[in-house]
């Protein structure tokens, strides 16, 4: 099968599931008749594209997707993801929403032949990016690239989105906002204060930052952290000719157990958001307190080099220009520092939410855990509703918050990780789409009821189905 043949199969399969046939959400206008989007999705990566496709299937039009990156560079895959392959198993599905012809496997076979799938161990990250580009094109998903959301502010019952575009500032009005912004969606990159305030900005980077690895040839590189991203960046530095890499890891050993394996079931992914607060907190307290082991092949990618040292049970306590890093056993010198320290949870750190962050309920506003399960950072996560909607810190002060949905890491304590990875996405997506659809029905239920109570037109099914005239 070729890509062209697969495109025909996609069209045929979508046609099989095309009922209902018509878009049903009625457009509204803003002040002075200004146009209003029904849904704006912020983020054009795998999650944003999947949400847009889900809204297409639900026959909800008036959708716009925004991404701050150029076309073909959405998400992390060809920017700051420095692994060689996806970390998930090759047979997991995600944005396809159960449409077989839209799966990565079918696309891969169309490009490389059926036998190539059997030889594949993990999906090459660049290949995954090419698949997402194809997915977007074949479904005609409307993405505006090189557009960054700078601020969200209320506009009556609507939301005004302040955008930075290649043509200058712009304001877009929308009824619903979906923040499909990945791991950074709930806060900023974690940067120790002794780095942020103690070292010049040009001598350190977070693993999510752009890094010119070519400039590290012949230089000493230090990496703080022992997760998968820390190992990926250490390997990339070594492969670009770094003279030496030192990794500083707080843990005494590499963790062996992957806590996600204990939770991978449809029951957990689909229904976690409906559990009571105490149970959800207990699950997430345990999950977020356990380290995720880096993949074996990621560790091997680092350790095959002779000029790397991994220092276990060795936290970095301070840093001074030079770069000199203080540890419990002494000082280490480096020329460049990479932080594999992950992402925090604090909505105040998100520029787009700065105007409304103080109105948003967090877990600390809604739940007090037992003292043996207290966790200040977990308490800063937004307390998200069952449809990923933000909730008011003080009920009644900003009801429209429920029309902003966090389909990103910010929702993890409330919904489990069903928006940022392929394993949970098939369960999180239908939940999100269902709740957005319900909102729009509530909006127009009164008008629809009035029309329904006086409806007496002849059955036009045949005309709708065939495009011809209705039978007499």
Describe, in plain words, how this protein is organized in 3D.
It is a single chain. This protein has two domains: 288 residues, FAD/NAD(P)-binding domain (3-Layer(bba) Sandwich), CATH 3.50.50.60; 112 residues, FAD/NAD(P)-binding domain, CATH 3.50.50.60. Helices cover 31% and strands 16% of the residues. The strands form three sheets. Strands 1, 2, 3, 4, 5, 6 and 15 form a seven-stranded mixed β-sheet that branches. The chain has a five-stranded parallel β-sheet with strand order 7-14-8-9-10, covered by helices on one side. A three-stranded antiparallel β-sheet has the order 11-12-13, with no helix packed on it. The model has no long low-confidence stretch (mean pLDDT 93).
In the CATH hierarchy, the architecture of the largest domain is 3-Layer(bba) Sandwich
CATH class of the largest domain: Alpha Beta
Give the distance, in angstroms, between the N- and C-terminal Cα atoms.
45 Å
Helix-strand sequence: HEHEHHHEEEEHEEHEHHHEEEEEHHEHHH
- Name the helicity range: 25-40%
- Anisotropy-based shape: globular
Q: Evaluate the radius of gyration.
A: 24 Å
Based on secondary structure, the structural category is alpha/beta
Q: Quick one: CATH superfamily of the largest domain?
A: FAD/NAD(P)-binding domain
Number of strands: 15
CATH topology of the largest domain: FAD/NAD(P)-binding domain
User: What proportion of the residues form beta strands (DSSP E)?
Assistant: 15-25%
């Amino acid at each position: 099968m070729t890509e062209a043949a697969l495109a025909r199969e996609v069209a045929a399969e979508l046609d099989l599931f095309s009922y209902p046939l018509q878009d049903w959400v009625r457009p509204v206008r803003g002040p002075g008749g200004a146009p209003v989007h029904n849904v704006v999705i912020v983020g054009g990566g795998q999650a944003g594209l999947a949400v847009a496709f889900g809204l297409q299937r639900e026959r909800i039009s008036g959708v716009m997707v925004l991404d701050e990156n150029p076309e073909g560079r959405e998400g992390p895959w060809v920017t700051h993801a420095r692994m060689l392959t996806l970390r998930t198993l090759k047979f997991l599905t995600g944005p396809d929403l159960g449409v077989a012809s839209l799966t990565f496997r079918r696309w891969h076979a169309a490009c490389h032949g059926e036998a190539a799938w059997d030889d594949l161990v993990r999906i090459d990250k660049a290949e995954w990016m090419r698949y997402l580009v194809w997915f977007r094109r074949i479904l005609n998903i409307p993405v505006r690239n090189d557009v960054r959301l700078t601020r969200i502010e209320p506009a009556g019952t609507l939301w005004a989105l302040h955008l930075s575009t290649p043509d200058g500032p712009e304001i877009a009005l929308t009824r619903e906002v979906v923040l499909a912004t990945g791991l950074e969606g709930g806060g900023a990159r974690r940067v120790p204060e002794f780095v942020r305030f103690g070292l010049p900005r040009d001598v350190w980077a977070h693993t999510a930052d752009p890094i010119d690895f070519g400039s590290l040839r012949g230089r000493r590189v230090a990496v703080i952290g022992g997760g998968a991203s820390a190992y990926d960046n250490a390997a990339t530095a070594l492969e670009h000719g770094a003279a030496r890499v030192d990794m500083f890891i707080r843990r005494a050993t590499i963790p062996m157990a992957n806590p996600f394996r204990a939770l991978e079931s449809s029951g957990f992914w689909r229904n976690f958001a409906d559990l009571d607060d105490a149970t959800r907190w207990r699950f997430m307290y345990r999950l977020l307190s356990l380290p995720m082991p880096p993949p074996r092949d990621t560790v091997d990618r680092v350790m095959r080099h002779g000029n790397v040292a991994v220092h276990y049970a060795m936290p970095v306590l301070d840093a001074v220009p030079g770069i000199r890093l203080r540890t419990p056993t002494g000082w280490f010198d480096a020329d460049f520092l990479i932080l594999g320290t992950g992402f925090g949870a604090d909505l105040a750190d998100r520029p787009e939410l700065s105007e409304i962050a103080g109105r948003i309920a967090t877990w600390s506003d809604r739940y007090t855990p037992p003292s043996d399960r207290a966790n200040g950072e977990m308490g800063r996560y937004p307390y998200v509703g069952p449809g990923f909607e933000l909730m008011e810190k003080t009920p009644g002060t900003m009801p429209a918050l429920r029309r902003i949905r966090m389909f990103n890491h910010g929702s993890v304590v409330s919904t489990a990780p069903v928006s940022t990875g392929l394993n949970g996405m098939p369960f999180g997506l239908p939940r999100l789409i269902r709740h957005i659809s319900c909102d729009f029905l509530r909006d127009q239920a009164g008008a629809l009821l009035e029309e329904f109570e006086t409806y007496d037109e002849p059955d036009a099914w045949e005309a709708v189905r065939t495009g011809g005239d209705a039978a007499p």
